[in-house]
Fold this protein.
Amino acid sequence: MENVNMRGRVRAQPLFINRCRHPLNEASWHDDTAQKAGEFIPSFICYPDMRIYNSAKKVGMRRNGEWEILLVGPTLAADKALRKRLSVDYALSSANTLARAIKAMEAGDIDAVVSEQHYPDGRGVDFLKQMRVVHPNTIRILVMETVRRDEIVKLINDAAIYQVVGAPWEPEQISLMLKRALESRELARRHRYLSHELKFADAVLHRQNDSMTRALQETYEFDKLVFCSNSMAKLCNQAKKAAATDLPVLIEGETGTGKELMARALHLFSARSKQIFLAQNCGELSDSLLQSELFGHKRGAFTGAVGNRLGLFPAADGGTVFLDEISDISPVMQVSLLRFLQEGEFKPVGADQTHHSNVRIIAASNRPLSQLVEEGRFRRDLYYRLRGLELKIPPLRERPEDIQVLTDYLIKKYAEKSSRRVVGISAEAMQRLKCYDFPGNVRELENEVRRMVAMTESGAIITVDQLSPEIAQSRPGLQNLRGIELPQGEGFTLKRTVEFIEAQLVRQALHRHHWNHSRAARELGLSRVGLDNKIRRYGIERATDGVTQNG
């Protein structure tokens, strides 16, 4: 095999052999076929041609000095051109002996080691073998004067070396190798977390970024959330403004109102939309498990910790973390979370060193945190840290006008999923839905619609017969009595009390239907003339939407 190197001379020897698989993925070091034959076959061979140089140069890199690189061996340590080039992009240290290299590895977190094969007190391959066991996350690169194929295969298998580099080599080429290796390690870290911790399917991981974005936007964009009420319109306008900032957001609302959906929409419309979004329910885990889930842990930190675990905060670095049921965390966990919100730093369980992570926190609670603060059950300082911006999602019973548009949307959604053709829903069935309180909010409505679609024949219309018993028994007007305060004091006889309640029900029906008399009359079970008579009798006026009662 021949190729032209960067100086234009013809060379038959490869510059380096790339293993193509990252050393962090211990299970995939060997090709299946080669493993059966008892031999490792390198994935591909790269030569120093300009195409590789140019394509590698396009790959992005982290900030200068963030990665720690160690040069091991007298030749590498004394190479001024190499040190000058690497010091531009990395924090650089060197050791000319094996003993010094081991001390340097123990002193700090080294991201990559570039080692010679021969130095005064040992061999490079023996040092890298030791590093494979003690520091498995460190990238290992071996530089050799002469390279034989059979020797390279043995070295790669014995020490899990990422790349073997043969002389002559250029400082720029070593720099690009390190860049690719470190980026590969970062990708492997993200892949492991998404695959093993969040159970993401391979098909989802390999989907194109643009198709994922389109799918997210179709489901979660504010302007496509299903509502028609003024209260939700106002809330979504506030949420759009909140998304444009980087402040923490506290979302309060009853169970089933769509707090996580709102959190995902906030992330999608923020500057972090291209980064990862991770969610955690704080109410379902104990303190120790929640600490491990959020901050991670080191191997041996507690019984059962057989390996290092990456927490949600470091995994979502640059993205957004959604903490649901934040009101359920213990006082001890509140202190840990407060420190992270203040300083952006944390310690994995069992670790000595402090780590930093830049994530946006969106918290949610189904109970008012201000009330818990007054009761002494939630830290006041943490509450104010979480409440950079506050959004309160109203329950479905306070916005009954949303029930019809939500029902129509959900019927279409589940009819398509079940390959059914549902014509629609009858007026009477829709009226029963509007009269029901829905203590489970939108989640309960969604489950009801899913069941109704499953019970309806293809090509038919949903009727009262498909409603669940508690919803089928609801009647117009009864759901509104809860919001009416009965008059107190002398002079309010039974007759006047009934008239007061009747006037309130008429006013509420007119308000819900934006003063459409036909729809309000239909809901109240009145004729159009009968409704007009009651409006005149009770002096209900649209301008002030007030109610007066005749003596």
